[in-house]
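STRUCTURE:
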């Protein structure tokens, strides 16, 4: 190739800089998600003390009940996006950045293979392996293997050495797909519909996928660090010329360096603005981000139904809690309403589940009446939005049986599940909504037993919702009533649940 032909085309340079932008958005928002449960496991039960890596010094008490929310940490907004208690909006930033990053990568790969550029990236001879080793040895000796030095490069037409070529090839065609796969493998909707995905990760299942996803992020960051070192090693001006102007002049120019620094500053300012926008007006950020993200997730994952059937031998020996019971010992969960405690004192003899709203036949069902309805048992994987998982055997009545008896009217679209408990951070009544078709999913049940025993108080007695394609916060505990509605905008702040209203969680909760 002649000197001009050795340059990098505009589309490739744009892909490089957009990749930088989206990659760091993914990392920072991923850290906001990790902060909600800063522990990593190789076992699907996420047993306390079994983590192989942790990012917290918190120790849970041994003399009282504790919840998974007690394990959360808050990181600076300089590190995570957003900082503080930012799980809800962190997830939105993550799920917005992920498809943009994938679209950037797909565009890059398509253009790569319809142009001669693929020859630079894809090795075409096994000589690349020993040549890459020689380049590595040269770096270890603090030498600089030049791209046109036949001692270190099997193909003298390339603008970089064999070690760099193998690294770029592995990053694009191995590590990037690996991250996409391990990310999707944490979706309750996908794992519920296709349990083979979870089994493919061995005994650790989803937690193995979560740990591998973190390690993949660490590899990306390691690459970025080495990449920055190499930029200065091989000459800052010359390398910036390649990345900005597409030129491969060995001396480079300060025009390319200046423009490159300007692009980096623009990316930094975008991150600062994203953090400021998210932190200063969370409801507005929620509205904007959900408007972009929710339609994509709903299109891809909403209609998937669960077919899970774990062997009972897989039941987790320890099942974490998220949320305290609404009793006087936990006033933040109880509020001023003592109805639940009175029911608890009578062993729920007077408990009635009220089903109302847009129905032809309102219902009021006691526990004996619920137990007399068709029973369903299912051993499934619980996915908490914080990241931990546990397997339990749930028994109860399918929600479709309730719907068949109350007969929703033609205008009915949603089910609003209301709890006796409160949303602990705000003291507001706890409620969550799902679409009517989710209530008819095969494994959507109202559970009154866990692992063959009457549902324990800490897990939502006397009745809790189980929706096996959703995250745990949608599965309302201490179930008080079900209201069939036509518009979630009439409830709370109109987001589909108290956690969506107050913590910017996503109503779909499919991943």
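SEQUENCE:
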């Amino acid at each position: 190739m002649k000197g001009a032909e050795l340059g990098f085309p505009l589309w490739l340079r744009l892909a490089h800089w957009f990749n930088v932008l989206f990659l760091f958005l993914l990392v920072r928002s991923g850290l906001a998600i990790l902060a909600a449960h800063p522990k990593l496991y190789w076992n699907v039960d996420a047993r306390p003390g079994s983590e192989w890596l942790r990012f917290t010094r918190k120790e849970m008490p041994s003399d009282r009940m504790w919840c998974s929310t007690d394990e959360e940490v808050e990181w600076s907004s300089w590190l995570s996006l957003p900082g503080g208690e930012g799980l809800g909006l962190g997830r939105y930033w993550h799920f917005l950045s992920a498809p943009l990053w994938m679209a950037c990568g797909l565009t890059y790969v398509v253009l790569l293979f319809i142009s001669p550029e693929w020859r630079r990236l894809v090795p075409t001879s096994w000589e690349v392996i020993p040549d890459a080793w020689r380049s590595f040895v040269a770096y270890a000796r603090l030498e600089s293997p030049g791209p046109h030095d036949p001692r270190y490069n099997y193909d003298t037409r390339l603008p970089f050495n064999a070690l760099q070529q193998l690294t770029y090839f592995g990053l694009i065609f191995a590590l990037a797909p690996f991250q996409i796969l391990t990310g999707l493998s944490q979706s309750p909707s996908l794992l519920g519909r296709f349990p083979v995905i979870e089994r493919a990760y061995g005994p650790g299942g989803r937690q193995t996928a979560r740990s591998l996803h973190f390690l993949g992020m660490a590899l990306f960051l390691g690459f970025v660090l080495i990449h920055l070192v190499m930029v200065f090693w091989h000459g800052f001006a010359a390398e910036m010329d390649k990345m900005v102007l597409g030129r491969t002049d060995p001396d480079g120019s300060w025009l390319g360096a200046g423009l490159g620094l300007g692009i980096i500053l623009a990316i930094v300012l975008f991150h600062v603005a994203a953090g400021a926008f998210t932190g200063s007006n969370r409801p507005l950020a929620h509205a904007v981000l959900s408007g972009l993200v929710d339609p994509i997730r709903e299109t891809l994952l909403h209609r998937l139904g669960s077919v899970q059937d774990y062997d009972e031998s897989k039941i987790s020996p320890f099942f974490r809690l998220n949320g305290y019971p609404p009793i006087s010992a936990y006033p933040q969960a109880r509020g001023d309403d003592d109805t639940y405690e009175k029911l608890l004192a009578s062993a729920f003899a007077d408990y009635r589940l009220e089903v109302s709203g847009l129905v032809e036949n309102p219902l009021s069902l006691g526990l004996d009446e619920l137990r007399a309805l068709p029973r369903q048992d299912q051993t499934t994987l619980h996915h908490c939005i914080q990241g931990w998982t546990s397997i339990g055997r749930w028994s109860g009545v399918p929600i479709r049986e309730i719907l068949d008896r109350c007969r929703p009217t033609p205008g009915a679209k949603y089910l609003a599940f209301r709890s006796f408990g409160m949303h602990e951070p705000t003291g507001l009544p706890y409620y969550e909504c799902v679409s009517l078709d989710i209530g008819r999913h095969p494994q959507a049940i109202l559970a009154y037993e866990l692992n063959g025993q009457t549902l324990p108080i800490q897990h939502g007695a006397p009745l809790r919702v189980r929706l096996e394609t959703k995250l745990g916060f949608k599965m309302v505990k201490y179930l008080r009533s079900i209201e069939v509605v036509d518009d979630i905008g009439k409830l709370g702040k109109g987001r589909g649940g108290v956690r969506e209203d107050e913590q910017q969680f996503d109503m779909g909760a499919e991943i």
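REMARK: Residues 101 and 364 are 50 Å apart (CA to CA).
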